[in-house]
Amino acid sequence: MRPEPTVVVAAIIHDGGRILRTRRRPSIRAGGLWEFPGGKVEAGETAAVALEREIREELNIGIRAGAVLCETDTPTAAGVIRLVCMWATLEDAEPVLSTDHDLLEWVDPSSISPEGWCEPDWYAVGLLRSGATPD
């Protein structure tokens, strides 16, 4: 019997045609790689509730979770990660600090490539490069 995947949510925070990407601090696993901010879904949480909580904890801002962009499973040394990427809009000012990241950057989604990103995020990056929008 295979263990259940670890469910992780990630926010595709969009604002005026830009999206927020975050670079993991060098001192944590996968340090130096880009990712969309988020974290693990806890028992009893929906993906949307978990995403809003994780962004409050990591970036100290409020967001409103929207539709799911994609859901993918990625095998890792620690087990399978099921990443649920969701569109999100800011409810507060833009974030300036993060507990897990050393750089926060607003980018045009068509200009990003999967190089330098955490592997679970690659599929979402491809969708964004191809023109995926929250509408």
Describe the structure.
- There is one protein chain.
- Helix content is 16%, strand content 41%.
- It has 135 residues and is an alpha+beta fold.
- The protein has a single domain, classed as Nucleoside Triphosphate Pyrophosphohydrolase, CATH 3.90.79.
- Strands 1, 2, 3, 4, 5, 6 and 7 form a 7-stranded mixed sheet that branches.
- The longest helix is centred in the middle third of the chain and has 13 residues.
- The model has no long low-confidence stretch (mean pLDDT 94).
Question: Helices, strands, pairings?
Answer:
Layout: E1 6-15, E2 18-24, E3 34-35, E4 38-40, H1 47-59, E5 63-76, E6 79-90, E7 101-107, H2 122-129
Parallel strand pairs: 1-6
Antiparallel strand pairs: 1-2, 1-4, 2-3, 2-7, 5-6
